[in-house]
Specification:
Alpha-Beta Plaits; Uridine Diphospho-n-acetylenolpyruvylglucosamine Reductase, domain 2; globular; Uridine Diphospho-n-acetylenolpyruvylglucosamine Reductase, domain 3; 4 domains; 20 strands; seven-stranded antiparallel β-sheet; five-stranded antiparallel β-sheet; alpha+beta
């Protein structure tokens, strides 16, 4: 490893290489802190060329490699592998090109999501996918996980907005799929790569589609004394074929956490649930849609219906929603964030089921989720220093996922699979489907050195070729170091 470090140093320079144990600490995990593995070293290339040269050296050394953006993922997808290295895109933050007429931007993979939209505001354009972590998460990380966000209800997740990629593969070869204006003939390799969680290669440059910023935006806050009523309101809005741009629900515990934090948004603390609804478009359309939504909300016995008075109040209401996960630190030292999709008509049923699963295990549950597309995020509060509580949390998370699948849903909406959900993949997919996934993966990375042993259960991929990170364990809440 010392020889590899010396060779990498010549490529990326001292600012692009991390080898000191204390500086490696932040790279031991992503947002799933239950599992921690210290990498041998971290390399931070500045350009595609540096990334390619670094990957070639890593391939020559034959060690596994994990790509990392900002480390905001919640499934262990960026957890290092013992004896392996991390390639971070944190220094690749240039916006390379913005074409206002054709509405696309070409950026390095380390560009922060919100910075891309901010750079386009003067031209009334934006990048639509907006994960709750958009203040920190990177475009490359969004590509890896096919991330969504509140507005994916209207605009769709990341894959709908990617027009081209530059990829560095396991050998250090560069694959340029960056043509932004013409649909490629043959296989859609860009579409295949999005959501592959770093197992196919590392995206170093991304060409994204931009959408026009709406001329009029209205945000409504509906307050309920009953979480069921909030869920039913969402189903009724969709049933009436109305098209808000976002529908978000926060429950009582989440509201209390938000209002006690720096993200305080003015949500009523005594409410059992609030429903945040956004409508955008041209003025007559927005006013008409919002009037119909208000009528539906009142029919479902909302305690209060409030429309944001101005842009500042809209910003504050949204800041509360997007800061909800961070605010939960006031409730518990650790948070297990589940991610599953269910049919909208079963929101009430599944929210109740998740609550019951946690109640039976003496766990506190906070709900905040993208109600418009049925993307649930049950947040289970715990303390990772308590081994028994960790066991109960993992059991509850697994049961919630399986219950969602049984109800006709899927095991991930936007967070990806990583390590957290890897062993549940065969609950949703047939063995032959998983074997096919392994064959596709081996086409991109025959030696399985790219983010090894994530995404697909090992038993479906034949002979193990690289050291495996442990699956989430009940007996070691701190994980390995």
């Amino acid at each position: 490893m010392k020889r590899l470090a010396e060779a990498l140093l010549r490529v990326v320079g001292p600012r692009g290489l991390v080898t000191e144990p204390t500086r490696l600490l932040p790279y031991e995990s992503d947002g799933l802190a239950l599992l921690r593995v210290r990498p041998e070293l971290v390399v931070l290339p500045r350009t595609t060329e540096e990334a390619a040269r670094s990957m070639a050296l890593i391939a020559e050394a034959g060690v596994p490699v994990v790509a990392r953006g900002a480390g905001t993922g919640l499934t262990g997808g960026a957890t290092p592998v013992e004896g392996g290295v991390v390639v971070s895109t944190a220094r690749m933050r240039d916006i390379l090109e913005v074409n206002w007429e054709d509405r696309f931007a070409r950026v390095q993979a380390g560009v922060v999501n919100v910075d891309l939209t901010s750079s386009c505001e003067a031209h009334a354009l934006r990048y639509a996918p907006d994960p709750s972590s958009q203040m920190a998460c990177t475009i490359g990380g969004n590509v890896a996980n096919n991330s969504g966000g509140p507005h994916c209800f209207k605009y769709g997740s990341t894959t709908r907005h990617i027009r081209g990629l530059v990829i560095v593969d396991h050998r250090g070869e560069v694959l340029d799929l960056s043509e932004p204006l013409v649909d490629p003939d043959g296989l859609d390799l860009v579409g295949l790569f999005v959501g592959s969680e770093g197992t196919f290669g590392i995206a170093t440059e991304v060409t994204v589609a931009l959408v026009p910023a709406p001329p009029v935006v209205e945000v409504l806050l509906a307050v309920f004394s009953d979480l069921d009523a909030a869920c039913d309101t969402v189903s009724k809005v969709i049933e009436h074929r109305l098209e808000p741009s976002a529908l978000e629900i926060l429950d009582r515990l989440t509201i209390e956490a938000v209002e006690s934090s720096v993200f305080a948004a003015g949500y009523p603390k005594g409410a059992e649930a609030v429903l945040l609804i956004e409508v955008e478009g041209v003025d007559p359309e927005v006013r008409g849609t919002m009037a119909e939504i208000v009528e539906i909300v009142r029919e479902h016995v909302a305690l209060e219906v409030r429309t944001a008075r101005d842009a500042e109040e809209r910003r504050r209401l949204w800041a509360g929603r997007k800061g909800a996960f961070g605010a939960m630190g006031r409730v518990a030292p650790d948070l297990y964030v589940a991610d599953a999709v269910v049919p909208r008509t079963k929101l009430r049923e599944l929210v109740r089921a998740a609550s019951e699963i946690c109640r039976e295990r003496n766990l506190r549950l906070a709900n905040v989720f993208h109600a418009g597309d049925g993307n649930l995020h049950p947040n289970i509060c715990y303390d990772r220093r308590d081994a028994d509580e960790v066991r109960r949390v993992l059991e509850a998370g697994r049961l919630i996922l399986e219950t969602c699948i049984e109800a006709g849903g899927s095991l991930t909406g936007e967070h990806g699979v990583g390590i957290e959900k890897r062993e549940e993949m065969d609950v949703y997919f047939r063995p032959e489907d998983l074997a096919a996934m392994c064959r596709v993966r081996d086409t991109w990375d025959p030696n399985r050195r790219m983010n090894p042993d994530k995404l697909v259960p090992l038993r479906f991929c034949g002979e193990l070729r690289t050291p495996a990170p442990r699956a989430l364990s009940n007996d070691t809440p701190e994980g390995r170091r």
